[in-house]
Specification:
The chain is an alpha/beta fold. A six-stranded parallel beta sheet has the order 3-2-6-7-1-8, sandwiched between helices. It has a six-stranded parallel beta sheet with strand order 9-16-15-10-14-11. Strands 4-5 form a two-stranded parallel sheet. The radius of gyration is 28 Å and the shape is globular. The structure holds adenosine-5'-triphosphate and magnesium ion. Residues 32-33, 218, 585 line the site of magnesium ion (MG).
């Protein structure tokens, strides 16, 4: 492998282009993300701009985990001190920052809370007075898509095409009211509110355009319309930005991402410099060829070439399996064989670490069977893409508390916190408190201390309500003033003790083992929050580095942005189980693509018609999957697969045929080959033997 600092001429051109907007449009593994980190370093060189400070550079990544990784890479180039000051964040996290600093202009208080998808769903059920979860979820989707297009409820209602949409728009109006009352925002708001803020308030816009002197965006192909607007507002007329992306890896269309953003870029910025990259540094030729063959089935938006000089490598292995269990067993067997170097001497495989392996699949539920097989074989793993960790009841409990500390007007959080653990405040009391609060249009928390509440409730009830209120206020005060990992941990452990959370877990769980595992999750969570509060950390070489200190309250505010355990980082030597979506941008030496069957990949649900557009997105997912692999790739197919309660015949995915596995590289005429070999042989003989005569 090349030295970490090398760039090829095209990458160099992208890094050196500092006079205006730049788009790197290139296939998988061509070093787009590498361009971003190196460009950050270039921007900070004195020869470019002696005044530019790291905090004036914003790099936008697709996930929190990608942000953490990018910061690590930046450290290697510019040192920890400078790298810690860079603004490296997702669009959503950046949105939080904008709103925290300037959201007051929109009437949002500094300590707003961020609702997760479950909260949103329950508010919608309430607002629409329905218990039909499916209906509520469809509203959630519709409202989210509207928001991503920049529509509010009034605009959505005006544009509604049918009764369903009109109803959804009316529900949206109620939903907007509630969010305003709770001083809460949802994920979509984290983009659309900053857009509104910057679009409508000149001074605020000027401030932020001044703050960020260069903006870099990774995975640009998966931005949505609102994110593009946010980018434009952030960079302004000066247009100092670098976007990198690959139209063939656009896989979030279902969530509102649009390739229009790629098409619009050259129109909106005529001075845009577009730079293609053609060399893939990740995969062997066998892997890359299969990827190119598959994606050739999609209409081309931009013509791209991609080649690799890493050699032909191992042929892609097609693994046929009887069913899901068999597939998992074969995956485990393959991994063990590769590690043991037994598999026909695959170069670089013997002695590989667990973290060199990934099993990728289309749908979350496919993980479970692999988890079981890996456990049985004692192979350590992590699951990414699933929302396992933050969906656990114990973590949601604690998150509700955190949210309440951040924002006392967050009624959904208030209700969860006051009843978890139970503190002898019954439903009748809470019902009365709720009535009182809605009558006077105050939050539940505010209502606690209203004098006229006393007339509605008994003294004892009031007493325990107010005791809870005082406790929350005290804790909030401490959380606001506690920074640094060590102190944060003390505070958080005190809190758990105060509310008796451990006891609550052990009393509530039937089995002690389950309670213990929940408590381990809680400790994990506490450690993680504490770590994010920063402070002194040990860097290599015995030096200590001061990372940015954050208060517990600041950290609490961003918790709901992190959706999966994997995003918490802290990679150790474990195998990765991941959805294809969550694998974007990553790479592993050895990859197994699982369940490559019709119906699974391309995914198709019963009641859905497969449109050309959907199929193209599925094909891009397959392309993303194949291109995650560096050295070996196995593709497994099920002969029979589970479908609901039934077992049905498995049909190999059309994408397998499209990989054209039988065909080697460009074929050589056998006679030509013989001639070439003779010549090579002759040349060697000539070089080795003394010249005759
Ligand atoms: P994706 O499309 O999957 O996001 P990418 O285009 O962002 O991929 P990178 O992840 O930046 O590609 O790079 C892929 C791999 O190739 C990485 O391991 C990276 O270190 C390596 N690489 C990129 N450019 C070079 C180079 N000029 N010399 C050596 N290695 C390189
Ligand atoms: Mg990348």
């Amino acid at each position: 492998m090349n030295a970490p600092a090398t760039l090829n001429p095209a990458q160099m051109a992208a890094v050196q282009h500092l006079s205006g907007p730049c788009l790197v449009l290139a296939g998988a593994g061509s070093g787009k993300t590498r361009v971003i980190t190196h460009k950050i370093a270039r921007l900070l060189e004195r020869t470019h701009d002696a005044d530019l400070r790291p905090e004036q550079i914003a790099a936008i990544t697709f996930t929190n985990k990608a942000a953490a990784e990018m910061r690590e890479r930046a450290k290697a180039l510019i040192g920890a001190r400078a790298a810690n000051k860079l603004v490296i964040a997702t669009f959503h996290a950046l949105g939080v920052r904008l709103l925290r600093e300037d959201g007051s202009v929109l009437g949002l208080k500094e300590q707003f809370s961020i609702l997760d998808s479950d909260d949103v769903l329950s508010i919608l059920r309430d607002a629409g007075a329905t218990t039909d979860a499916k209906l509520a979820r469809s509203w959630q989707w519709t409202i989210s898509l509207w928001k991503n297009q920049g529509l509010n409820s009034a605009q959505a209602e005006a544009a509604a095409q049918n009764d369903d949409e009109r109803i959804a728009a009316r529900i949206m109006a109620r939903y907007e009211e509630r969010l305003a009352a709770y001083q809460a925002v949802d994920f979509d708001d984290l983009i659309s509110l900053p857009v509104k803020l910057l679009a409508e308030h000149d001074a605020v816009r000027a401030k932020w355009q001044d703050t960020f002197r260069h903006v870099l965006v990774d995975e640009y192909q998966d931005t949505n319309a609102q994110q593009y607007d946010l980018l434009k507002l952030l960079v302004g007329e000066r247009a100092m930005f670098t976007a990198v992306g690959d139209d063939d890896q656009s896989i979030y269309g279902w969530r509102g991402a649009t390739l229009d953003n790629l098409k619009r870029l050259p129109q909106d910025f005529p001075q845009l410099k577009v730079i293609p990259l053609e060399q893939n540094y990740r995969s062997t030729s066998a892997i890359l060829r299969a990827a190119n063959n598959v994606i050739a089935g999609n209409p081309k938006l931009f013509e791209k070439k991609l080649w690799s000089d890493l050699g032909e490598g191992e042929p892609i292995k097609l693994v046929e399996c009887d069913g899901e269990e068999h597939e998992a067993e074969r995956a485990v067997a393959r991994i063990q064989a590769l590690r043991g170097g037994m598999a026909s001497g695959v170069e670089g495989a013997a002695g590989a670490k667990w973290s060199d392996f990934a099993i990728l699949y289309r749908a979350n539920h496919q993980a479970r069977i692999f988890e079981k097989a890996l456990r049985k074989a004692n192979i350590p793993y992590k699951v990414s893409g699933g929302q396992s960790f933050f969906d656990k009841a114990e973590i949601k409990d604690l998150c509700a508390w955190m949210r309440l500390l951040v924002n006392q007007d967050d009624d959904p959080a208030f209700l969860r916190a006051i009843t978890t653990p139970k503190r002898g405040i019954g439903h009748t009391t809470l019902g009365k408190l709720g009535e009182f609060a809605s009558k006077w249009k105050v939050s539940l928390f505010e209502a606690l201390f209203a004098e006229s509440l006393a007339a509605q409730l008994q003294g004892k009830a009031i007493g325990s309500l107010q005791e809870f209120g005082r406790y929350v206020s005290d804790l909030e005060h401490r959380a606001r003033h506690t920074t640094g990992a060590e102190d944060a941990k003390v505070l958080l452990l005190d809190w758990l003790k105060d509310i008796g959370y451990e006891q609550h877990l052990y009393e509530g769980e039937e089995s002690e083992k389950l309670a213990a595992s929940r408590w381990t999750n809680v400790m994990d969570f506490i450690d993680w929050i504490a770590k994010r509060c920063g402070g002194e950390i040990d860097a290599t070489g015995g030096m200590t580095v001061e990372t940015q200190r954050k208060s517990v309250l600041e950290v609490a505010q961003t918790i709901s942005l992190i959706t999966s355990l994997a995003e918490r980082g802290g990679d150790t030597d474990v195998l990765t189980l991941s959805t294809l979506h969550a694998a974007k941008g990553l790479e592993w030496p050895h990859v197994i693509l699982a369940g490559v069957n019709e119906g699974l990949l391309p995914f198709k649900s019963e009641d859905e018609e497969m449109t050309a557009q959907r199929l193209e997105e599925e094909r891009r997912l397959m392309y993303v999957g194949i291109t995650r692999a560096r050295l070996t790739l196995a593709v497994s197919v099920l002969r029979r697969r589970k479908k609901g309660r039934d077992t049905v015949q498995g049909i190999p995915s059309r994408f397998i045929g499209e990989m054209k596995l039988g065909e080697g590289g460009p074929k050589e005429d056998p006679r030509e080959k013989l001639k070439r070999l003779r010549e090579e042989f002759a040349a060697k003989a000539k070089a080795g033997a003394p010249a005759a005569g």
